[in-house]
Amino acid sequence: MNADYRWYVVRSKPGQTKRAVQELQNQGFEVFCPSITVDHIRAGKKVTCVEPLFPGYLFIELSELTSNWRPIRSTRGVAQILTFGDKPAVVPDDVVENLRTQVQARSELRPQQPVRIEDGPLSHLNAVFLEYDGEKRAFLLLEMLGRWQKLSLPLGTFGPV
């Protein structure tokens, strides 16, 4: 990324986030729309879907100096660029990078997958991933004192072995 490029938030029209992402990418813009895999029960059956983490919103990387902002507003699926007052709202680079890391870690983990705890008092211990515990935590199984213990740890404190 060039030094003058920053991340901004684009609000999409209702139900058109994927279309906005595709259209902006077709125009050559760098776009990030974090998504997660979610299990739903529909008609009594488990269905796995990929959904946006922030429905109706996506991130776009632009330069105030060299990017052509004009076509963004008229892009199919785009409602507006979010602003504070009359200036586009800037999202810090580390926030977007952290989102990328969290979404990637979350999408890689499957039930019964071995993981290694990398942070905290249990660091360097191996465990087994069970399931997600909300948006920011997960349940793991850890063998301690000859028994399996179920514990909940924050995402980002462990990773696949």
TrEMBL record:
<protein>
    <submittedName>
        <fullName>Transcriptional antiterminator RfaH</fullName>
    </submittedName>
</protein>
<dbReference type="InterPro" id="IPR006645">
    <property type="entry name" value="NGN-like_dom"/>
</dbReference>
<dbReference type="InterPro" id="IPR010215">
    <property type="entry name" value="Transcription_antiterm_RfaH"/>
</dbReference>
<dbReference type="InterPro" id="IPR043425">
    <property type="entry name" value="NusG-like"/>
</dbReference>
<dbReference type="GO" id="GO:0005829">
    <property type="term" value="C:cytosol"/>
</dbReference>
<keyword id="KW-0889">Transcription antitermination</keyword>
<dbReference type="Pfam" id="PF02357">
    <property type="entry name" value="NusG"/>
</dbReference>
<keyword id="KW-0805">Transcription regulation</keyword>
<feature type="domain" description="NusG-like N-terminal">
    <location>
        <begin position="4"/>
        <end position="103"/>
    </location>
</feature>
<dbReference type="GO" id="GO:0031564">
    <property type="term" value="P:transcription antitermination"/>
</dbReference>
<dbReference type="GO" id="GO:0006354">
    <property type="term" value="P:DNA-templated transcription elongation"/>
</dbReference>
<keyword id="KW-0804">Transcription</keyword>
<dbReference type="InterPro" id="IPR036735">
    <property type="entry name" value="NGN_dom_sf"/>
</dbReference>
